[in-house]
Amino acid sequence: MEVSPPQESIRGTPWRTSYQPVSYRLDSKLGTEAEFKAMVEQCNATGVGIIADVVLHQTTGSDVAAGEQTGVAGTRYNGTTGDYPGFTGESNRYPDGVTAADFHDYNNGANISDYKNQQEVQEGRLSSMWDFDTSSEKVRQIQSDYLTKLYNMGVQGFRMDAVKHINNEDMKAIKDQMARKVGTSADDIYWIQEVIGNANEAPGIQPRNYLGTGTVTQFDYKSDLNAKFKGKIAALKDLSTRIGDLSQNPNAIESKDANVFVPNWDTARNDGAITYKNGSMYALANAFMLAYDYGTSRLLSDYKYDVNDNGAPGATETAVPDVDFSQTCSTKDADWNCQQRWTTTRGMIAFHNYVHGTAAEHWQDDGANSIAFSCSGKGFVAINNSTESKEAEYSTTMPDGEYCDVYAIQDCSKTVTVSGGKIKASVPAMQAIAIYGGATKATHPDFKVAVDPSTPDVVIPNNTVKPDDQTTTVWYKSTKKWGKVFVHHGAGSDWTAVPGEQMEGRDAQGYYKKTIDTKGEEHQICFNDGGDWDSDNGKNYLIAKGITQVGVENGALSVGNPEAVTGQTRLLVHYKPASDEFTANRGVYVWGKDAAGAELAGQHLAFTGEDCYGKVAEPKFDGTFNNLNFIITTDGWNKFGGDRSAKVAADGTAEVWVDGTGADDVTLDKAPADYRCTAQKVDVTIHYMRNDGLYFNAADADTKVPQWDVWTWNFNTNGFAAKFKSHDDWGGLALASFNNYAYPAAADGTSDFGMLRRYGADEWKRKDGGDDDIKMTASALVFDKATNSAKAEVWMLQDDSTVYTAR
């Protein structure tokens, strides 16, 4: 049984605060050292080993206030200066604790942004948290002392957090040092390392580098289950080959080295994993994991939450209340989920223990969401991940006989018969059957109830999918001399009242325009001026389900915006004010010539904001420019320096920094060392233009969710889907928000904001722009000192990998 980090941490109710230690005292929000020791001893006495979740990589970050603070057990620390007197080692080995000198100081404490740079990943700050220098003998002594104390208390295994951020040689050295202190071989210490593999990141931080020290987590497993259970589980047939066979995949993790899970406590809080919120699919995914022989299975037992950061029910800043699980788990409606008691879990754990080490064989599927397989004659499982029951005759290597269906019940009141190597069964919707050789009426333990009361009801999902954006903008060019135009629209018997909604216009390109509510369904439209009609000869014009832009002209409907939308170039100027700025109040004078040779007439523009560096101006100009010229000046020509030039990058922005307190002839095109802006919140506006107009493809019956979204993340936020819930004249429009951000920019100017356009939601049927990680450039970000926030706006085009920062 694995337990949450037992060490003292920062105060706070969010679950993640337990992963910010301020000392290695075993006094945490979960209890005292004496209580922890008593739990370990009691569990060991009953044959249950304890695995401790161990945080060695970091201490605290921006979640704590500046200056001196105290942890949940009262230990003082200062997250601003890097002083943590509570990390003393055993027997007060280092009485003054640790200081800033005991942490890495990569790029003056910069956050990680470039995961292709191994040094930055392993020495930079993760989510602003101080990063222990694990190559230091002092740090190794303190951390191996902590592990030794846990081991000597009876802890039998260790789950090491955030290991990709620790050099593999350092990790091995700490384990070896601990092994010497406890007098055992390092190979005999059960050791799980959280290493999130990503082939697009630095080779030195991949899971394979840590296999000499212990096993690793296999995050591809939960992602694959998530994609297939939300698509077609028949595609799981070759799972162990795809993610576990090195001859097929150089980044594979062999079964003996892999720790697998459906979600863990972290991935459960974000998109990209199956959780209890997915209803019966969650129990089915866990059943598959426990039946299919790949990796070491890890089951989560957690609680219900509405906000992803929420800590345990009733948690305060310093304590989690005790829970009587016999009472709490006596109902399926409690705050705690009690997964360990569910009938489906109990049955599948027994199944797993009986068939462990056997390969899946005699795989059978219907090409969609019904699968079955045997486990070398010792067990058989059939899973129905569809909304209708499945009648089938399955082949199995199980001996003939009558077996208990351990997925459905725990008292053997429901059985499955094998006859002549065949099973005729009806598998109910969103349920499974599971039998194994050790569970017959004669051998199955006697239970007083068929189903544990904590077990959730079976939930049959409604798989009807509507577009995220349920509106359509209509452009209409009339061939008649109408003074005004109405669009009359509807579906079935639900239509607007005649004459309909009046359209805007006519505009300079001759179109009338109106955005209408289609309710996410196929829709019909026609036009009139209050008397005369254009209804396509009485047939009406048909808008397919999910289409967000249409034009109607000369009796024909086309998908997309028929009008030309002008491209733009963006200039972003950061100006640290000169000493006379209070009275001078300078702005930016801009001029230039676009790529077609057209002149941009000079214009004086005021600075419109202020960031951590100084004043900010962000003008945008119609047209494509390769360079923009500018002067920092008042409109009366009180200048700082002379003419300057800003080169426009491929993403459409020219970003520069001018230090008014320094030399007046210097213009920087990369952020200076003192540009360290932070934001409590970052709002990113994402535009996406598809030439085919198919943000939602109603004709694709093979995909559960046939629409595009953007999978986005940064160093401080796990991935989530930003949905195109609206649109503008350019294309689809999505919004994404991030918290607690600190500016990092890689050497090539990219930020750590990922922007992957994907089709099919969690199925990941297709990606647009290529298979590599696609990042937003740092020039998209504009910080606002007054509100401690930042914004960004980006544009993406179908079949183009660039994330543009200007339209």
Automatic annotation (TrEMBL):
It comes from the Bacteria. Its EC number is 3.2.1.1. It catalyses: Endohydrolysis of (1->4)-alpha-D-glucosidic linkages in polysaccharides containing three or more (1->4)-alpha-linked D-glucose units. It comes from Bifidobacterium animalis subsp. lactis. Belongs to the glycosyl hydrolase 13 family. Its cofactor is Ca(2+). This is Alpha-amylase. GO terms for biological process: carbohydrate metabolic process. Keywords: Calcium, Carbohydrate metabolism, Glycosidase, Hydrolase, Metal-binding, Signal. Pfam families: Alpha-amylase, Alpha-amylase_C, CBM_25, PUD. InterPro entries: A-amylase/branching_C (IPR006048), A-amylase_C (IPR031319), Alpha_amylase (IPR006046), Carb-bd-like_fold (IPR013784), CBM25 (IPR005085), CBM41_pullulanase (IPR005323), GH (IPR017853), GH13_cat_dom (IPR006047). Residues 2-352 form the Glycosyl hydrolase family 13 catalytic domain. Gene3D superfamilies: 2.60.40.1110, Glycosidases (3.20.20.80), Golgi alpha-mannosidase II (2.60.40.1180), Immunoglobulins (2.60.40.10). Residues 469-546 form the Carbohydrate binding module family domain. Residues 361-440 form the Alpha-amylase C-terminal domain. It is an enzyme of class 3 (hydrolase). GO terms for molecular function: alpha-amylase activity; metal ion binding; starch binding.
